Amino acid sequence: MQKSLPLLCLLGLFALLTSAVLVENGYQVGDVATDFKLKNVDGQMMSLKDQKNAKGFVVTFTCNTCPFAKLYEDRLIQLHQKYAPLGYPVIAINPNDVKASPGDSFAKMQERAKDKKFPFAYLYDETQEVAKRFGATRTPHLYILQKTANGQMKVAYIGALDNNSGDPEKVTQRYAETALNSLLANQVVAQTSTKAIGCTIKWRAEAQ
Amino acid sequence: MVIKTYQKKMLRKSLLLCLFLAFWFAGGTSVFAQSPSVPVIKLPQLQKYLQSPSDTTYIINLWATWCKPCVEEIPHFEALQKQYAGKPVKVLLVSLDFAKDLDKKVIPFVQKRQLKSTVLLLDEPDYNSWIDAFDPAWSGALPATLFLNNAKQQRFFVEKPLTPALLQEYLSTKFSL
Q1: Correct CATH for A4-207 of 2.40.10.270, 3.40.640.10, 3.40.30.10, 1.10.150.120
Q2: Signal sequence span per UniProt (chain A) (predicted)?
Q3: B128 vs A160: CB contact, 8 Å cut-off?
Q4: ipTM above 0.90, yes or no
């Protein structure tokens, strides 16, 4: 027993380190995303596997309160309206902790979805598990998933919707659309990840 | 008659002097009441700090007036500026507000909070083109803070809201401050 103690400690440490690394990094492009089950603003639980006809998804971590997330609401609606009929609906997920950000409660999400007439699902990631698993750090933060032949969800793009948050008219690169067009044309996505300014996700106090 | 003209001249002169003084005074006070200056900079100007060879510890905080946790932690950075007065420590508050919001939001914020640290507005809206150049570990979320001393080859980046205790911990353990 005494001999195995250091080994146990080492194993424990290893497990701790690897789990920390996993949470830190989240998904990389090429990884397979696992499905989730979250409550939509219509009160129904929703999973990716429910949408059998989808070719993939534009999973977007967003919220009610971040000005940068709000700047993209109309653009997300347009993206959904253009690409949902082609098989890539937007799935919006709000990961903010309600204690840290009271404006992101489920009731407020329902209000926002109604006011803006969101044509897409707006899901509540109450435990923040999904955001952590994806490795989302900010709102807005997009993940384009592509359904493979065997039904897996492969991460094809991570990042921003386009290259100008402040002014849609000054956008010169539509990252998400370009990636989706490549996927729809069975081509390789040229730019698989981008970075952009956003609001840090409001994590629960104990999770920090 | 002569005296009267003289008086009139004097009166006119003193009136002019009064007017002059009034203008001068008004001008003088307006200098004192001037709104704080927040230079709008581009990336190369920020990189001058990032590449500064001096033995100065730069604490570069990336923030925006619309970012609640950023606004909450700004007093902690202001306190550092005071705590390390006279020492080679420099706090830079780099705002990522839109340049169009400079007069409407950023300057009034700096004025209201009476910020003493250097405040700059980085006008580079094509974020993906420079975020990695600032620090590859940065995802783009605000707030974020870079601690840097090039002479000592020390660099530490953190992407989360900071408390005074955390700031002190980083500065003492990583920069011996």
Answers
A1: 3.40.30.10
A2: 1-20
A3: yes
A4: no
